[in-house]
């Protein structure tokens, strides 16, 4: 398997994860609870606030990494097919 094929496979798997309602529910629940913990913490509780912010950033990083993997896949497919968008995107219009 070539590197491009591996990146396409990774991107397809990431796209599948991002499309899962259960995944999105979990991420949204965690983001909401982390935000609530941050907002409800006392400004003097620096360690607690930093911990909740780090937790939030970690969640965002997971989602952003998955989105980046999808973008890499899409870029490869565009390059391979000489089109401005992958076929899959056209099908959803």
What does this structure look like?
The chain is an all-alpha fold and 93 residues long. It has one domain (3-91). The protein is built from four helices and no strands. α1 packs across α3 and α2 (21-40) runs antiparallel to α3. The two termini are 31 Å apart. The model has no long low-confidence stretch (mean pLDDT 90).
Figure out the total of helices: 4
Helix content: over 70%
Query: Rg to the nearest angstrom?
Result: 18 Å
Sum up the overall morphology in one term.
elongated
How far apart are the termini? Answer: 31 Å
**Structural class estimated from helices and strands:** mainly alpha
Strand proportion: under 5%
How would you state the average pLDDT, rounded? 90
Q: Main sheet? A: none
Which stretches are low in confidence, meaning pLDDT under 50 for 5 or more residues running?
none
Strand segment count: 0
How many structural units, i.e. domains?
1
N-to-C series of helices and strands: HHHH
Question: Briefly, what is this?
Answer:
This protein has 93 residues and is mostly helical. 83% of the residues lie in helices and 0% in strands.
